[in-house]
Amino acid sequence: MSAVAHRSIVSLRGLGVTLTGAAGPVEILRGIDLDLARGETVSVVGPSGAGKTTLLMVVGGLERPSAGRVEVAGEDLAALDEDALARFRGSHVGIVFQAFHLIPTMTAIENVAAPRELAGAADAFGRAREELAAVGLDHRLEHYPGELSGGEQQRVAIARALVNRPDLLLADEPTGNLDAATGDQVIRHLFARSRDREATLLLITHEAHLAALCDRTIRMADGRVEAAVAEAAAGSEAAGGQRDPTGGRDQAPRRDREVEDRSGARGAPGRRNALAPPEGARTGNGSSSGNGTGTGTGSDGLRPAGPVPSR
Ligand SMILES: Nc1ncnc2c1ncn2[C@@H]1O[C@H](COP(=O)(O)OP(=O)(O)OP(=O)(O)O)[C@@H](O)[C@H]1O
Ligand SMILES: [Mg+2]
């Protein structure tokens, strides 16, 4: 491991992902080199199809690369088999998805406790209660996802992502299904909780004002890191703990987004799902990271619930 990698929580070298579908091989990530320092907040922006979600999946150990080296929290992910990868995710990674992916038949506290129980901890419900209180939901412990608003569901998902005290918090358009005001509230919680936990935050977003809250922004295009956007002005201020999610807001009207399914199981967008692929999906790189049937969480509690989640 390099000296840089020692200081980094994430170190990517020559990362490539190629998938082979019916139309032949497609290079989705092409030679990405990237380091994330412990505790920093980094946003990833770029057009649809740029490879942002794929990058997040590889960093989270949910998708295996076709080329290159991926080190996270000092682990060379290529050296880990599926069981070891699940343990790695359980101890190091929390993920927040756009469509929440809570388990609809479990209450808020059960959803949050699940990854901790799977990790074999005795204090799962105590920790779940703590994390739910931290996102202002101590009065909703026994509610089912269908009885919660979209913003509340996403706060439950944040609590779930943090219940095992991960080093790395990955968020893929976490406000994408929320209206602007609710999204800002959720983002406040995401930043505050990741800072409290001293977790590194990797945030994919299409919204400039959210990207600007991070210490730095990475722009992706066509499977490459195109440019490290100049450090956001808000970044240094943010590092001091005074991030204001509404600061620097672009006043342009935003696209209205609906929470399509209050259970969090959003309709399949008709594309690949690396987390819970239908049989035969994901043939390109021999990845077996997509496991399970698409219902329930995986053994590490990180995979989304519900049928064929969107990414
Ligand atoms: N199974 C597959 N076979 C071939 N190409 C795929 C497959 N799944 C995804 N892709 C392609 O990979 C590219 C990157 O997808 P990815 O989901 O990482 O993009 P993204 O930057 O997250 O986009 P968005 O902003 O729309 O979420 C896209 O062009 C997509 O069409
Ligand atoms: Mg995406």
Summarize this structure as a short list of keywords or feature phrases:
alpha/beta; 4-stranded antiparallel sheet; 22% strand; Rossmann fold; 311 residues; 6-stranded mixed sheet; binds adenosine-5'-triphosphate; binds magnesium ion
Describe what you observe in this structure.
Helix 4 crosses helix 5. It is built from nine helices and ten strands. By secondary structure, the chain is an alpha/beta fold. Helices cover 28% and strands 22% of the residues. A hairpin with a 2-residue loop joins strand 9 and strand 10. The chain has a six-stranded mixed sheet with strand order 6-7-8-3-9-10, with helices on both faces. The protein has a four-stranded antiparallel sheet with strand order 2-1-4-5. It starts with a helix and ends in a 72-residue tail after the last helix. The structure holds adenosine-5'-triphosphate and magnesium ion. Residues 52-53, 172, 311 line the site of magnesium ion (MG).
The main β sheet shows up as:
6 strands, mixed
The CATH homologous superfamily is termed P-loop containing nucleotide triphosphate hydrolases
Straight-line distance between termini: 31 Å
Using only CA atoms, what is the Rg? Answer: 18 Å
Instruction: Please tell me the total number of domains.
Output: 1
Low-confidence stretches at least 5 residues in length (pLDDT < 50)?
A: 1-5, 230-311
